[in-house]
Design brief:
This protein has a single domain (2-261), classed as Ribonuclease Z/Hydroxyacylglutathione hydrolase-like (Metallo-beta-lactamase, Chain A, 4-Layer Sandwich). 30% of the residues lie in helices and 25% in strands. The protein has nine helices and 14 strands.
């Protein structure tokens, strides 16, 4: 399997998951031009996409989903409540490209099994996803207010995980955001902090998990070095060494990552 973070952060999100036969975008939260440029950087062509899988209806996850669907005839997959919440923003989509699934029921796209799972976030019916092909499993869990047992149960047997490390709590508290927004981010339907991300990795870590990528970093209340340092310090305090027991990496907000091969 392949994975690439095209963009991951508070200003827009789009991830690529694929096999030789099946290529999928998870979210499309930047302009169509930016996503096309990002795909081109890693040798991908939008005409080969078999679907855009939507986590939830917030603009930083759906901004160009309708544009790309119309431009390249790509199906858009979302559950019923998410489709209802985003339909005006997405715009007109060909009927055959509207792919609605119930709640959190698994479905197939080509040779990939897609397993949605519930995440704690303030959206209509938000999803994390696991993508399974043969013996490999890639999981994506961002926009999570806290490390729920449902999320942990769904991702703990993955080979590769993209997990949210959105903010540093102290930076958020003293930062420029208005007080109601700070409360939202810190709530159980907000976003996962660096520290809570590190604790969550400790809770789920096992011999199958080869790599964890930290994603959805805030541009205002975090920076990559701080997220990495916080997570690694928690792991090191518990005897876990980066590069030996697990590989920790960062998905950047404003640039395309390198293609990851999961075997």
């Amino acid at each position: 399997m392949e994975f690439c973070s095209l963009y991951s952060g508070s200003s827009g999100n789009s991830l690529y998951v694929g096999t030789e036969r099946t290529k999928i975008l998870v979210d499309s939260g930047l302009s169509g031009k930016r996503i096309q440029e990002g795909m081109k950087e890693v040798g991908l062509n939008p005409v080969d996409l078999k679907g855009i899988v939507i986590t939830h209806e917030h603009d930083d996850h759906i901004k160009s989903a309708g544009i790309l669907s119309r431009r390249f005839n790509i199906p858009i997959y979302a559950n019923t409540k998410t489709w209802e919440a985003m339909i005006r923003s997405v715009g007109e989509v060909e009927r055959e490209n509207i792919k609605i699934f119930d709640g959190y029921n698994p479905f197939e796209i080509g040779d990939i099994t897609v397993v949605p799972f519930e995440i704690p976030h303030d959206a209509a019916c938000p999803c994390g996803y696991s993508f399974i092909h043969d013996k490999n499993k890639i999981s994506v869990a961002t926009d999570i207010g806290y490390a729920s047992e449902t999320v942990k149960d769904n991702i703990k047997d993955s080979d590769f995980i993209l997990l949210e490390a959105n903010h540093d709590v102290e930076m958020l508290k003293v930062g420029p955001y208005p007080y109601p927004l700070k409360l939202r981010i810190l709530s159980e339907v907000g976003h996962l902090s660096n520290e809570n991300c590190g604790v969550m990795i400790m809770d789920i870590l096992n011999s199958k998990i080869k790599k964890v990528m930290l994603g959805h970093l805030s541009n205002t209340n975090n920076y990559p070095e701080l997220a990495m340092r916080t997570v690694l310090s928690i792991l090191e305090m518990n005897g876990i060494k980066d590069g030996r027991d697990v590989d920790i990496d960062i998905a950047l907000r404003d640039r395309v990552g390198r293609m990851q091969i999961i075997k």
